[in-house]
Specification:
mainly alpha; Cytochrome Bc1 Complex, Chain D, domain 2; 49% helix
């Protein structure tokens, strides 16, 4: 029996592994409470921070009617686009990813929390 033939039944029996990579939107909503002080995801309205509605695929520093720091504007002009990789890096350490950002959040260190947060935010992506 081939290795591949062994993997198929395992994938059928344990679909949780696939869910772990995609994240849990309900758990992500709980993580978002840390972000929700300054951001919204459900609507395209800015608060203290820019709306995260449709954040995936957005160029950094470009959400309309938000006053971004010069550092965030420069990052966008330099080509920073929010995808899972760049946003994960930013959330791990915002001030390291975009030096001079005015976001005061210290970051999320737990990758599972970030993955769940992404699952939540993707519900509000266009």
């Amino acid at each position: 029996m081939s290795f591949r033939a062994l993997l198929i039944p395992i994938a059928v029996l344990f679909p949780v592994a696939a869910l772990a990579q995609e994240g849990d939107a309900a758990a992500g909503k709980i993580v978002f409470t840390k972000c929700g002080i300054c951001h919204v995801a459900e609507t395209d309205t800015n608060k203290v921070g820019p709306s995260l509605n449709g954040v995936f695929g957005r160029t950094a520093g470009t959400h309309p009617n938000f006053s971004y720091s010069p550092a965030m504007q420069a990052a966008g002009k330099a080509g920073l686009v929010w995808d899972e990789t760049t946003l994960r890096d930013y959330l791990h350490d915002p001030k390291a990813k975009v030096k001079g950002t005015k976001m005061t959040f210290v970051g999320l260190k737990d990758d599972t929390q970030i993955t769940n947060l992404f699952a939540y935010l993707k519900q509000y992506s266009k």
